[in-house]
Specification:
heterodimer; A: Alpha-Beta Plaits; conserved putative lor/sdh protein from methanococcus maripaludis s2 fold; Rossmann fold; 7-stranded mixed beta sheet; 6-stranded parallel beta sheet; about 35% helix; B: alpha/beta; L-arginine/glycine Amidinotransferase, Chain A; 3-stranded mixed beta sheet; about 25% helix; about 25% strand
């Protein structure tokens, strides 16, 4: 919604000037937020107010600004954003502005321009002729790119301004094992249904513990019910899931008996080898080699999945991307499409994904280890709702809430 | 009570030479000799009956409205804040006035150049509080500035009727918490503010307001008002004032009367 920040000072209260300004704004059915107010204490002290005025119609907003200008409410004198060329490939200019994951705008050519794809720990690249600004990672910078430097002309919208009217207020981002999980999970289900109704994709990030704990069949049901559109995971989740499908074990442990199955520790290597021989997971499904499990469900349901490698991977599976910059780019592309991300039992992959998500995307992080959830929050993903629980009971409860049998 | 002191300017070049308010009409020229008589009558009444000291400055050629010294600026103790006139027709008056106040050892405080302010025409003290009008001639932004530099509380009043384009055409302080006003010149907020902050508020009616009833001069318990304002005259008498009724017909053609022709210096 177009907005403008105005300031006014004087004996605003005694003269009813503030009332007049606010009444005028409301008369036009616009919204306002008093960002700062200082009321004079003695009769000689003046008062000060900084007010954000917003109206969905930019022309109406102009009329309002003109009307309240006569009461002394003047648009804040803005500094234009400072730009400097990138000195070389993959290098920002000195003093580059580092982004948060919050909605950001820059003031350029006397207009506010929204920065596309908000993502933390990035720079802002500006195209003057197209009046466009977007976040850019260091490695993507090309020599001569115009990059925002310093803080002048950069506006960041705090999270609270946007989430005020949403349903998750009762869920603070503090992490506690004491929270009433059923209530939280019911809320997650409601949000997933809302995303589904809005035809927006829901992103899942999963760790191998989903398979170890025996929760894979529950996730399969969720996928089959159409609640998972994107899956981001590492080699391990897919490898253990496929091992479980082919041999009934996860890292050699029988999923039926819960005991070590002798030489089962070899199973995950054999499983990877079978998939490599088949030419990949998709081919293995098509050839009827892989007949069940999470990855099978993903192929069948056409889930958009990205598997990324790590230094300790076995294999890896053919679809696993081992070029980290390419892997980031693929994950980032998916992250930009979602408003809800559910992260299940994985620390590093959750943090990596959290870094790419704008603050406007809700993150549900489920982990048995409270510190895992805290880490995501501490790294700046303040929009995270942490649920401390084993992933198996979480998914089990979630299926009930979603009415999936 | 100290001797009241006023600043005036003889209407040497007075006339209706342009139209910058709703009262002015180039087809309705002022009678200069009658204007001069009315001005001298005011000056004599101030000196003789109100016991006032009157200081005069010379009029500038081509500046017909310089006689309306209420708009020269705002005087507070030994400070003079020169006006920044809305219309270019009056802008050249400012150096004449400022020079006079400089010569008389006033401390000159100038307003920011981007805002307009028309002196005591739009800024009147009631007790220690400055009541300041805005919209037609004065920008509200100057109010905060005045409050700060003078160290006083300033109440802002929006003027909503173009016939009452200066605060002193519709509002006249007559005591530490008493004033005359024409309520219809203000919006609801302004009327509420006046009601809540002034103990004795004498309202003038439509007819007398358009006869410049509020544009009177008060010194102690004596008042100089425009002759036809009989209701105000009896109201002031009821409040114990000695009233002197004079004619200001020629000045009303330009949108001013007794108050506009004077600037109180103390």
């Amino acid at each position: 919604m177009p907005d403008e920040i105005v300031e006014l000072s004087g004996h605003l209260i005694d003269s009813f000037t503030l009332s007049k300004v606010l009444d005028t704004i409301l008369k036009h059915k616009a919204c306002y937020e008093i960002q700062k107010i200082k009321v004079g204490i003695s009769v000689k002290d003046t008062s000060f107010a900084r007010i954000l005025v917003a109206h969905k119609d930019p022309n109406r907003l102009k009329i309002i600004l003109r009307e309240i200008a006569r009461y002394g409410a003047e648009p804040v004198v803005l500094n234009e954003v400072n730009l400097r060329s990138a000195p070389m490939q993959g290098v920002f200019p000195d003093d580059f502005y580092t982004t948060t994951n919050l909605d950001t705008a820059i003031y350029l050519g006397s207009h506010w321009i929204t920065v596309k794809n908000p993502e933390m720990d990035s720079g802002i690249r500006v195209d003057r002729s197209l009046k466009r600004a977007e976040t850019i990672k260091m490695a993507q910078v090309k020599r001569g790119d115009l990059i925002v430097v310093g803080h002048n002309g950069v506006r960041v919208t705090p999270l609270a301004q946007r989430h005020g009217a949403e349903g998750f207020e009762f869920m603070t981002s503090e992490v506690s094992a004491e929270k009433p999980k059923r209530v939280l999970i019911a809320e997650v289900a409601r949000r997933m249904q809302a995303e589904s109704a809005a035809k927006r994709p829901t992103l899942f990030v999963g760790g191998p513990a989903i398979v170890h704990t025996g929760a894979a069949p529950l996730l399969v049901k969720l996928i089959q019910a159409g609640y998972v559109q994107i899956l981001l995971a590492g080699n391990a989740l897919a490898a253990h899931d496929i091992e479980c499908s082919l041999f009934g074990t996860s890292l050699g442990v029988s999923m039926c008996k819960g005991t070590d199955s002798g030489s089962g520790h070899e199973n995950h290597l054999r499983a990877i080898n079978i998939i490599r021989r088949a030419g990949g997971i998709r081919h293995a499904v098509q050839k009827g080699i892989l007949k069940s499990g999470i990855m099978h469900a993903c192929v069948k349901q056409k889930v958009d999945w990205v598997l990324t490698g790590s230094i300790r991977d076995d294999g890896p599976l053919p679809e696993v991307i081992t070029d980290m910059l390419r892997a980031q780019a693929e994950m980032r592309r998916r992250c930009r499409r979602v408003k809800l991300a559910v992260m299940l039992a994985t620390l590093l992959h959750s943090v990596a994904t959290g870094n790419m998500l704008p603050a406007s995307t809700r993150v549900i992080n489920v982990d048995i280890d409270p510190s895992s959830v805290t880490k995501l929050y501490d790294r700046g993903s303040l929009q995270t709702i942490g649920i401390v629980t084993d992933v198996q009971p979480f998914l089990s409860e979630l299926l009930i809430e979603l009415g999936i049998r | 009570m100290p001797q009241p002191s006023f600043f005036m300017c003889r209407p040497t070049y007075y006339g209706i030479n342009y139209k910058i308010n709703a009262w002015m009409d180039l087809r309705r020229q002022a009678d200069r000799s009658l204007a001069l008589k009315q001005w001298f009558a005011l000056r004599t009444t101030l000196e003789k009956y109100l016991g006032a000291k009157v200081h005069c400055c010379s009029a500038g050629p081509g500046l017909p409205d310089m006689t309306f010294t209420a708009n020269a600026g705002l005087v507070y103790k030994n400070i003079f804040v020169p006006s920044r006139f809305r219309y270019k027709e009056r802008a050249s008056e400012e150096p004449y006035f400022t020079r006079w106040f400089q010569r008389h050892e006033y401390k000159i405080i100038r307003l920011p150049a981007e805002y307009r302010f028309e002196g005591a025409g739009d800024a009147l003290f009631v007790g220690k509080t400055l009541f300041a009008g805005f919209y037609y001639r004065t920008d509200i932004q100057t109010h905060a500035f005045l409050g700060e530099v003078l160290g006083v509380r300033v109440f802002s009043l929006e003027l909503i009727n173009r016939y009452f384009y200066h605060l002193d055409t519709c509002f006249l302080p007559i005591g530490p918490s008493a004033a005359i006003c024409y309520p219809d010149a203000f919006d609801d907020y302004g009327r509420k503010m006046l009601r809540e902050n002034i103990d004795v508020l004498i309202a003038v009616d439509h007819d007398e307001a358009y006869q410049f009833a509020c544009n009177a001069v008060v010194g102690g318990k004596k008042a100089i008002i425009h002759k036809p304002c009989l209701k105000l005259e009896s109201e002031l008498k009821r409040h114990g004032y000695k009233v002197y009724s004079l004619g200001f017909s020629e000045f009303i053609k330009a949108g001013g009367a007794a108050k506009c022709l004077t600037l109180r210096l103390n």
